[in-house]
């Protein structure tokens, strides 16, 4: 396990604890926002580390699929 993996594991565990507490208003919205932000940034660090250690282009499609929002079909007017 790399340092990035360990940080992501900790961030996921923290978010798992904080989310239900936020739903009960037992922690602040800021605490929830911080937990979400930390989980997202540590996940990105793991993805970047994996991409850096892989042959060029191997993880680009997977990373883009995970990060980009689902596209809505465009409506064409005839």
- Computed Rg: 17 Å
Q: What class, by secondary structure content? A: mainly alpha
CATH architecture: Orthogonal Bundle
**Helical residues, percent:** 55-70%
Per DSSP E runs of 2 or more residues, the count of β-strands stands at 0
The CATH topology is given as Helix Hairpins
The geometry reads as elongated
Distance from first to last alpha carbon: 55 Å
Low-confidence stretches: none
The major β-sheet equals: none
**CATH top-level class:** Mainly Alpha
Total domains: 1
| Number of helices, where a helix is a run of at least 4 consecutive DSSP H or I residues | 3
> What's the mean pLDDT score?
82
What is the N-to-C order of secondary-structure elements (H for helix, E for strand)?
HHH
**Residue share in β-strands:** under 5%
């Amino acid at each position: 396990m790399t340092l990035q993996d360990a940080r992501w594991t900790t961030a996921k565990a923290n978010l798992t604890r904080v989310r239900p507490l936020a739903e009960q208003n037992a922690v602040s919205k800021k605490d929830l926002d911080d937990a979400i932000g930390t989980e997202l940034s540590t996940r990105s660090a793991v993805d970047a580390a994996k991409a850096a250690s892989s042959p060029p282009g191997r993880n680009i499609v997977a990373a883009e699929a995970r990060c980009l929002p689902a596209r809505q079909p465009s409506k064409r007017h005839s």
